[in-house]
Amino acid sequence: MFWNLLTSSSSTPEVGTPWGSYLMIGILFAVIIVFMILNRRTQKKRQEETTNMLNAIRPGTKVKTIGGICGVVAEVCNEDNTFVLETGSEKTGKSYIRFDKQAIYQTDAVAENQAPVSEVKEENAEENATQEEVFEEENTATEAVNETVEESVEETAETETTDEE
Q1: In whole angstroms, what is the distance from residue 16 CA to residue 22 CA?
Q2: What average pLDDT does range 52-66 have in this prediction?
Q3: CA–CA distance from 150 to each of 32, 46, 74, 138, 153 (Å)?
């Protein structure tokens, strides 16, 4: 159906007017470009979160590597982008293994928020105020509807009583 709208309205095909196909190709390219831009944004955001998580690694942080080795970070070397992982226990004997930071699969390290807490509180306060305004408007509308319904019920009851007399 969409294709029929793009082609000419006459029943005979016109030779030399490929504008419908050019339009379709243009729309296709536009959609591809939009998807690429959106994908790049999400990829950049994910990479930033990963970088913040890796920079939050400190000694004492629990870590699981991509190889499945679990342990506690004993030392971090930011120059080499590596860390030393302590595994084992006192009973079985501890072992220390040096890893690249990129080998981290999971961690309990929390990246520091870049926005100050006061800004976050202000944003939450604005959202709450907006939600309260919407709630009040809904309550006002509901009360008006209830009053209208009550008036119509009273009028109906009065009409019925006058009809009965």
Answers
A1: 12
A2: 90
A3: 57, 56, 73, 18, 5
